[in-house]
Predict the structure.
Amino acid sequence: MSLRLRIFISMILLVFTATLLVLGSTYYQYRTESDLYNSYRQERKENQLKRQINYLVNKHDLSDKYDLWEDYEKDFEEITKIHSVEYSIFTTGGSPLFYSYLPLDVISNNYSLKEEFADMLVSTDEGKFISENFTDVGKFQASYSVLKNDIGEKYAILFFPYFQDVSFAESELNVFLSTLYQIYFIMLVVAIVLAYFISRYVTRSIETIRLKIGQAGLLKKNEKIYLNNATKEIDSLVNSYNKMIDDLEDSVERLAKTEREQAWQEMAKQVAHEIKNPLTPMRLTVQSFQKNSGIKKGEDQKDKLNDFCDTLIEQIDTMSNVATSFSDFATLPKTQLEKTDIVEATKKVVEIFEQNNISLETSSENIFIKLDKEQWIRVMTNLIKNSIQAIPHDREPIIHVNITERLKTVRVTVSDNGLGVSKNNRDKIFEPKFTTKSDGMGLGLGIVRSIINSHRGKISYKSRSKKGTDFKISLPK
């Protein structure tokens, strides 16, 4: 089930449940209030009836003269007309004194109350008993209460049946509930419409994200998501997706660089193999021909031959150097980390280029770290050679090497006052084959980065146009 459908159904169920609860609670409240009203009305009518009966009894002194009650039967009948009620009066023993209405169980008992019931009612302090009765006329509340005269003597038992006029109440309740049904039906229809649009609005952003994720791919141009007025949760999800796209692009770029390097290394192996194999026999053949040409010394032909052979040997040596560089790039030896004084290893390289105004500055005389000494010498040689070649001939070279020991790393900086790196080339200088020199092969900085990566270090640079470049190496201690 989709999230949109779940939201839609949840909202409908919420409104529907609320409707049922309101209708149920309204019906229950109405019934409760109706019962309370009828109880209050019954008690009020019964009290009025008692006052009227007590008035007649006290007026005619009938509390202990049961044989005189028949003489005043019309007065008691008048009470039923005045108050529009039915009632009956019995002696404390249960015998009838007056009756206008009696339940069937009393009629079947010769119009008298059962003696046990009468004795129980008279003996209790409250002197009252209420029961619910069902007849063909309808349901009514029957109240049996003891009557007392002015001095508190019990002289009779009053039977008062209270018939609720529920027809009007039921009609009023039905009309009210019918109106309420219509209102909530309209509310339910409105809720369905609102739920539909709200569920669409809530899930629209998620659907957009789903489509973008479905379109994302490693070899595709992935687009980021930008949403207006997005909720906090959706905005967080969008930010996570956009970050994933950035990470994916970085991974694609690193993968492309790795593939290019691997392709260059594979090609370098083949170039080194194909070039280097015939070079040594060629060199030996030229040298042998030069030595055993049969031309006497001093002759003009001998000098021309020597020049020709020297040129050939020089070009063969150049090609051999090219093949060696390709071979070194393709098959860098495995890094052998040993505890090495990086200051001493760097000094040896600086001494080779001593005539080029190179200065070395260190934070300590000796700094020992895990290092492959031979590879480190190669790194520094390449960097210093690049710095020298970056300085124009009309400018006095100034190259500064700085080694600083930190808490967890060693920072090595090689600075020069050359021409710097142009903006167009700043992303390419560590790539194989890239070079701005006419006699270079562009493998030096690629080899440097490979060596630094094998030492779990980092290399970066900062270039100042026409003023120089700073290469920074960070190695873990």
Q: What stands out?
A: The first helix runs from residue 3 to 60.
